[in-house]
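Interim report, section 4.2 (structural modelling).
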Amino acid sequence: MLCQRCGQRTATVHLTKFINGQKSEMHLCEQCARETGELDFVIEPAFSLNQLLAGLLSQEPAPPTSEPGGEVRASERGLSRCPLCGLTYREFARTGRLGCSRCYSHFEDRLDPLLQRIHGHRRHVGKGPRRISNAAEVYAQIERLKAEMDQAIRVEAFERAAELRDKIKELESKLE
Amino acid sequence: MARNLEGVPFPHLLDAGRAEQVAQRVKAAIDHINAAGKFGGLEFYFLEELSALDRQVLAEKRLISPQHAELAPGRAAAIRRDEGVSIMVNEEDHIRLQCLFPGLAIGGAWRLASEIDDWLEQRLPYAYCPRRGYLTACPTNVGTGLRVSVMMHLPALVMSGEARKLFSAITKVGLVVRGLYGEGTEAAGNIFQISNQVSLGVSEEEIIEKIRGVATQIVEQERSARQGLLRQARAKIEDRICRAYGVLSQARIISSEEAIRLWSDVKMGIDLGVLNGADSRPVNEVLVISGPGYIQRLAGRRLDATERDIRRALLIRERMRVYKSP
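Predicted structure of the assembly:
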């Protein structure tokens, strides 16, 4: 198929547009598509990380403004303050910057899904400071014990599960 | 590499006094490194003690960011004498460590950065948690806190129109492309910076391998695009290179945009052997000496735009003398 604009080159860009229910089709070569600006929305190399973050934050569901029969908790309104730096989640959503290292645990519930969307992962892999290099191992051990505990609960081996729970608690206290 | 101090709010929430304290703590750690005779000596500067022009030159040399060059309490920088290492203090994060290597020496840059990081860590307790890694002001950097970038000069891919397709493919594998001078595919000088976007859940080695793999492929594509251009339109390409060389070696007034644009053609001419007489080091200096801050500092005073353009043309002509056109 030839490009319907220049009629010379092969059409490699096939566009179907729906505008107010009206369907229209276009078949263009790459050069004409570029010249008419039809390709512009497809490729945006200058897309910056901050834009990406702002986009992701704006996609988040709006926090509930009221709850039937009860007070809305401050954290749900995005007004709960980080105990170390005093930042609210709402302020973070506006600037894209957290206030301190404590914010990561204080806003954990809302940050974790965000990290998943930004990075495709939630868990760090790689280098760590030497002073806590053991901590990564402890963490991995906790994960293993948790899986084992879930299994124990599933087969109703509650005594074993309780033992595991205590071990996990002990290890977790080491990480604090 | 982004690092922060445990228990201290990130720089944008610090008052002047606490920002100063952070700078003093980092300075103490750098002094400790220097006392041990490591890394060839890191010079520590409190930015408020530097002139606006000196700060601008640091930004033009990419040793600090343009934002960091603006005055704010506690901002500082430690810079190795050969300018291959720079550490920004109180930028977006408490510490931003940068190692610049020529060529595709990403592994070397990472090893040096990691070793300096180990030394800093001896004196500075980092904000880190095993689950989320190094904690940063912006969640886009959390985890390794590592941004690996490769600067690439891609004139033939831009000329042949392949760059656009390539960049769209690159963004699909989790990397980001930016123009070094200006944004988009029409970046002045055809210099592009390719970086990782993801910092959490992938190890430093994985990030490096991915960038290295992609960069190697781009190098191959650029090389074959250059050969393709020469085969199809040798006269046109040589004409373009020699015209650029003509202007840079003769112009009496030149703006920095024009200089950077023509730099791209001359640099390609040297790489292709159309221009000879020297390697590309002298022409590469054009990129640094073209900056408005650099020219004014060399002159020792503020210059208006026309004065700058005249001096720039002179400095560039001197660099061009070593080259010969066919």
